[in-house]
Design goal:
The complex is a heterodimer of chains A (about 80) and B (about 400).
Chain A: H1 2-20, H2 41-56, H3 60-63
Chain B: E1 10-13, E2 20-28, E3 31-36, H1 37-47, H2 54-75, H3 80-83, E4 97-102, E5 108-113, E6 119-124, E7 128-133, E8 138-144, E9 152-155, E10 161-165, E11 170-175, E12 189-193, E13 198-203, E14 209-214, E15 219-223, E16 229-233, E17 240-245, E18 253-258, E19 263-267, E20 273-277, E21 284-289, E22 295-300, E23 305-309, E24 314-319, E25 328-333, E26 339-344, E27 349-353, E28 359-363, E29 370-375, E30 382-386, E31 390-394
Antiparallel strand pairs in B: 1-2, 2-3, 4-31, 5-6, 6-7, 7-8, 9-10, 10-11, 11-12, 13-14, 14-15, 15-16, 17-18, 18-19, 19-20, 21-22, 22-23, 23-24, 25-26, 26-27, 27-28, 29-30, 30-31
The chains are: A mainly alpha (about 80), B mainly beta (about 400).
InterPro entries (chain B): G-protein_beta_1-5 (IPR016346), WD40/YVTN_repeat-like_dom_sf (IPR015943), WD40_G-protein_beta-like (IPR001632), WD40_PAC1 (IPR020472), WD40_repeat_CS (IPR019775), WD40_repeat_dom_sf (IPR036322), WD40_rpt (IPR001680)
Protein name (chain B): G protein subunit beta 5
Family (chain B): Belongs to the WD repeat G protein beta family.
Chain lengths: ~80, ~400
């Protein structure tokens, strides 16, 4: 696609310009493929959300655990009626 | 500042002039080229066309960068909080202080949990590192280090040793012994040697390797047994203040954040900087991976915390509020990654909803800056260390 070509050309030029301008840090980026990396934010965000969803039930700080199971919560002393 | 002669990663005959000298390993059009630095400069100069000056090229490169950002912006089809609109709003959390750990004589600078989910090691400005049992508030071990400002401490995965470092420019590993009478400081072994203060340290997946970050602008991987430098990571242009190892068992990457406002992701085996994120407006004090390893959060002196996705290669959320004006010193995720706990210099801990970008809760209690927050390995509790000389356990 021409857009991808333009990006690839521009990137190449910027990389060379960076060397020419004598910038100290030479950045080496490894792209798996210009089609697959970087991901669309919608896809990346969906994955983050599904991870949260899968693990939400086992997150003690999120859902709270009963006092008897949490070693940090002090158990209330028994009240004799 | 940083005295870095780091561009030379290998030594050998130059591909162009044949002389043996330190080589710069660069890639042009994905082809590896090993030229000595003189030949690289020659190559760069010869590429300059007639009439072009450094000035005009800089201008061109800036405009190209802008163009790149534009193209990249087209990929940003939607924001994280928009995608998260259909997620349920969180009910209010009931998190309170359950324990207050007193015993340090000065500001507590760092804390780390042991994998057994009950022990902690904390280090302080008074030069001491203390190992606590969080359930019983028992102090199990105390190590006195010969320097003040012990800014970094870490528990070994086996639970048999702790590492600490700070203004002494070193990171030392102290094996913990069950014998109460043994002088732990005598067994202390200096592993890491930097040319400036050590700001962060962590063991890798075993007790054998230690990763450190330093005010000299570099991060380094050390072999604990021999003290040998295995790999060094150059790329930051100012002090590196924090680092975090990627959570996967096979993972070989880590992220670091520093005073140059950049957060860099590194490959541990090659020492290369694979991704870099620069959107903060001030020093990055802390970086922490999301539990899945696909993203990380950072806390900065610009009073914001930001969330970066590694696969989308961009910032996807900013956690800020007009009423929050003090710098954030530390962040950590809850077990599921839904909550982000951030400690601030205004003595509070803000709890943010990672997906929606809103603040869920504020935890009050400390009487001075919060320097570090850490969630326990099983997610049942949060430990916060503060300049008020105490640590608090919240659950």
């Amino acid at each position: 696609m021409s857009t991808n070509n333009n990006i690839a050309q521009a990137r190449k030029l910027v990389e060379q310009l960076r060397i020419e301008a004598g910038i100290e840090r030479i950045k080496v980026k490894q792209y798996f493929s210009s089609l697959f990396f970087p991901l669309l934010v919608s896809k990346a965000a969906a994955d983050l959300m599904s991870y949260c969803d899968q693990h939400a039930r086992s997150d003690p700080l999120l859902v709270g655990v009963p006092t008897s199971e949490n070693p940090f919560k002090d158990k209330k002393p028994c009240i004799i009626l | 500042m940083c005295d870095q002669t780091f561009m030379a990663a290998t030594f050998g005959p130059c591909d162009s002039c044949g002389k043996a000298s330190p080589l710069m390993n660069i890639y042009i059009k994905s082809e590896a080229i090993n030229y000595c630095s003189f030949c690289v400069e020659m190559m760069a100069c010869q590429q300059l066309q007639k009439g072009e000056t450094l000035q005009s090229l800089k201008k061109e490169s800036d405009s190209l960068k802008k163009k790149l950002e534009e193209e990249r912006g087209k990929l940003n089809d939607v924001e994280l909080h928009q995608v998260a609109e259909k997620v349920e709003v969180l009910s209010s959390l009931s998190i309170k202080t359950r324990r207050v750990l007193k015993g340090h004589g000065n500001k507590v600078l760092c804390v780390d949990w042991c994998k057994d989910k009950r022990r902690l090691v904390s280090s302080s400005q008074d030069g001491k590192a203390i190992v606590w049992d969080a359930f019983t508030l028992n102090k199990e071990h105390g190590v006195t280090l010969p320097c003040t400002w012990v800014m970094a401490c870490a528990y070994a995965p086996s639970g048999c040793a702790v590492a600490c470092g700070g203004l002494d420019n070193k990171c030392s590993v102290v094996p913990l012994s069950l014998d109460k009478n043994e002088n732990l400081a005598a067994k202390k072994k200096s592993v890491a040697m930097h040319t400036n203060y050590v700001s962060g340290c962590t063991f890798t997946n075993s007790d054998m390797q230690l990763l450190t970050s330093s005010g000299d602008g570099t991060c380094a991987l050390w072999d604990v047994e021999s003290g040998q430098l295995l790999q060094s990571f150059h790329g930051h242009t100012a002090d590196v203040l924090s680092l975090d190892l990627a959570p996967s068992e096979t993972g070989n990457t880590f992220v670091s954040g520093g005073c140059d406002m950049k957060a860099n992701v590194w490959d541990m085996r090659s020492g290369q900087n694979i991704q870099s994120f620069e959107s903060h407006e001030s020093d990055i004090n802390c970086v922490r991976y999301y539990p899945s390893g696909d993203a990380f959060a950072s806390a900065s002196d610009d009073a914001t915390c930001r969330f970066y996705d590694l696969r989308a290669d961009r910032e996807v959320a900013v956690y800020q509020k007009d009423s929050v004006i003090f710098g954030a010193s530390s962040v950590d995720f809850s077990l599921s990654g839904r909550l982000l706990f951030a400690g601030y210099n205004d003595y509070t801990i803000n709890v943010w909803d990672v997906l929606k970008g809103t603040r869920v809760s504020i935890l009050f209690g400390h009487e001075n800056r919060v320097s570090r927050v850490r969630v326990s390995p099983d997610g049942t509790a949060l430990c916060s260390a503060s300049w008020d000389n105490t640590l608090r356990i919240w659950a």
